[in-house]
Each structure stands twice: as C-alpha cells, then as structure tokens.
Amino acid sequence: MKHRKSPYTSTFYMWKGIAAFFYSSHLTSFHSHNTIQLILDTQKDFRFKTKNSGWSTCKSLIIKENVLHQLDTNGSVQLIIYLDAETRIAQSIKSKYLLKNEVQPLDLNVFHFVNSKDLQQALLMPEPSVLESVINKVLACLSLEIEDVRTDQRILLAEQTISTTHPEDITIKSVADKVCLSESRLRSLFKQVTGVSLYRYMLWNKVWYATNQIMAGYSVNEAAIDAGFTDGSHFHKMMVQMFGISPSKFLKDNMPDNLVMCDKSPLHFETYVYRQGKNS
Q1: What is the predicted pLDDT for the residue at 67?
Q2: Superfamily for 8-279?
C-alpha cells in the first residue's frame, strides 16, 4: 500500500545562495525557478522536458534560471539543488555548461561526487550540515574548483554498479566481473580505496534502496521486502544499526512543507507554475 505523500519531499534546507532537498513520486506541471537548478538522480534515472522539447531521460541535469520545464521522477529519487545565479560558483558552472544551452544533461551520476553512505546520511539525518557537505562536493567538482580525488575508476564503477542495481541482483562475483577483477582483489581494493568493506557497502545500498522505495510511495514493510530484507522489522533493525534512525522517524522528520532556514540571509527562491498560458 502506498503511503500518503505524493510527491515525497525531504526537508527543504536553505543556505545563503543555495537550497536543496530530495524529491520523488511526482510528475510536475510546467514551471520555472529564479535559480539555476541541478538535478541528480540517486537510483536510476528521471524524465525531463521543456516547452520546446520532448521528453528525455537523464541521470543528471543542469537547468538555467527561468526556463519552463517539467520533471517526472520516474519512480526514482532525485537530489535537487538550487543556486543563486549571481554567485561566483553558479557563474562558474554556467560558463562551463550553459553558455549555448538552456539545459545541459551530464554524463555523470551523483556517485561521481559522493559515496552511497554520505548520500544516505544526507537524506536520513535531520542535520543540514550533512547535506551541505554533500552539496559542496558536488558544486566543487562541477565548478572545477577541485578535481575528483577518487581516481580508481574500477572502484568508482563498482560503487555505481552496486548503487544503481536492485540489491537482490547484486553479488560480489557480478561486481568483480563488471570491473574485471577477482573477487578477492576487489574486496581488498574496495576496502583500501573507500575505507569500508565491500559487504558493508552492499548492505548500505540495501538500506538505501528500501529508503528510496519509501520515498517512491511504498509502505515500510513493502519497501523492506522489495529490498531483500525479511520484513519491516529486519529493515528497521539494520537502518537503526547503520544510521541511527528508524524508517518511522525518517518519515516523521520529513513532514510535508518542512522548511529549515540555515542562514540569516537565505537564498531568495521563487517558483512560477505555468497554467493555461499564464504564470502564477
């Protein structure tokens, strides 16, 4: 049974020049924002269109300010970041990606910037500094202020494979085959590069997948079983053990229209919804 929230939105955090939240389970109307918008899918992909284009499928996307568009979450969950277009970091991103286009799909996914545990903590923990840290990594990479130091492409591919595949379809052997390493070498190298065991990372992903299913509208028990847990109690136990928060508290902490101002002068944010040829 689907839960009550559609669309599902995590707490909306606003800093000076930046705002962000997680979003799922919705097809928007045509709308625009007075900010640059970054959309990063956390699981599979989403669908997107402008007034002048048909639907396309994306993993990541940058949208210029004041561009009318629609977003279809496509049963997945997106991290959405808004930037004041006049800030230095926004100007840097615009000069790289938006000089000729109103929108720019990226051949990247969120796991190029952060690992699964960091991303899941940002979603689960009601602490804006955790999400802010994730956002800063994303923006620094996109603006070329830092380079991605996670240089072992085999481990990056392993993380992406684990994080974007149904947990029950993933085995250590299948990941090892994907990155052309033996299972023992993959385990050793994965721990060396990431600091966590491959098994634990796969368990993180299992919890992450179940959380995404909750955001997509499924009950805690349905999400748990779909992710491969025995039942909702098993999922509850693992989520508390690994992240210190229960599924029910996660839902409680992310009530509709929950807005947190993290700065005395937060981002000036406006959304315009296009209805019958008029903005409102």
Answers
A1: 92
A2: Homeodomain-like (1.10.10.60)
Tell me the Ramachandran region of residue 21: left when phi exceeds 0, alpha when psi lies from -120 to 50, beta otherwise. beta
pLDDT tens digits along 179-237: 999 999 999 999 888 778 899 889 888 888 888 888 777 889 999 999 999 999 999 99
- Contact 39/58 with Cβ under 8 angstroms? yes
pLDDT interval class at 1 (50, 70, 90): very low
Domain extent listing, the chain = 8-279
> Strands 8-9 and 18-24: what pairing?
antiparallel
Contact residues for 1 (Cβ-Cβ < 8 A; gap 6+): 219, 222
Amino acid, single-letter form, for residue 9: T
Please name the residues in contact with 145: beta carbons below 8 A apart, sequence gap of 6 or more.
Answer: 89, 92, 139
Q: What is the pTM of this model?
A: 0.81
Q: What is the 3-state secondary structure (H, E, C) of the chain?
A: CECCCCCEECCEEEECCEEEEEEECCECCCEEECCEEEEEECCCCEEEEECCCCCEEECEEEECCCCCEEEECCCCEEEEEEECCCCHHHHHHHHHHCCCCCEEEECCCHHHCCCHHHHHHHHHCCCHHHHHHHHHHHHHHHCCCCCCCCCCHHHHHHHHHHHCCCHHHCCHHHHHHHHCCCHHHHHHHHHHHHCCCHHHHHHHHHHHHHHHHHHCCECHHHHHHHHCCCCHHHHHHHHHHHHCCCHHHHHHHCCCCCEEECCCCCCCCCEEEEECCEEC
Q: For residue 35, what pLDDT band results from cuts at 50, 70 and 90? A: very high
